[in-house]
Design the sequence.
């Protein structure tokens, strides 16, 4: 392991013929075209530390944004801003792992499939965003 010139980042290289034994989801081809699942010991870690998995997935394939909506009330346009999280991935298996983990920690979500085939998971309910904010933290 060596330091990268960015705060909070580390560069890790791993070489082994046994990586497929340790991480069976690692393999040839595109990840969204092969089965990806957590084996028993990996699921035990996720069950014990679900926020670590969610943080890693949001920081790699997700974001936190300030969304806005406007409406006209009595002739006056009112703009409302609110934070929300998005996670986008093409792999149905990764989406399944992400949403199952959200369910396990009590975060409400909605998913929409884009025309490209990617699935966009949205977390916009105020209490769920607050829960995510308390555990995820800023992206570096």
Sequence:
């Amino acid at each position: 392991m060596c330091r990268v010139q960015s705060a909070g980042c580390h560069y890790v290289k791993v070489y082994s013929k046994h990586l497929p034994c340790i991480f069976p989801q690692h393999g040839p081809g595109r990840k969204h075209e092969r089965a990806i699942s957590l084996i028993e010991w990996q699921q035990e870690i996720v069950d014990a530390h679900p926020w670590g998995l969610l943080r890693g997935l949001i920081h790699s394939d997700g974001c936190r944004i300030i969304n806005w909506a406007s409406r006209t009330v009595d002739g006056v346009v009112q703009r409302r801003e609110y934070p929300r999280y998005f996670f986008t991935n093409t792999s149905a298996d990764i989406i399944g792992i992400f949403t199952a983990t959200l369910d396990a920690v009590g975060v409400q979500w909605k998913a929409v499939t884009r025309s490209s085939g990617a699935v966009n998971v949205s977390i916009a309910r105020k209490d769920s965003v607050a829960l995510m904010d308390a555990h995820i933290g800023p992206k570096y």
Notes: The chain has a mean pLDDT of 87. Residues 107 and 128 are 5 Å apart (CA to CA). The first helix runs from residue 19 to 22.
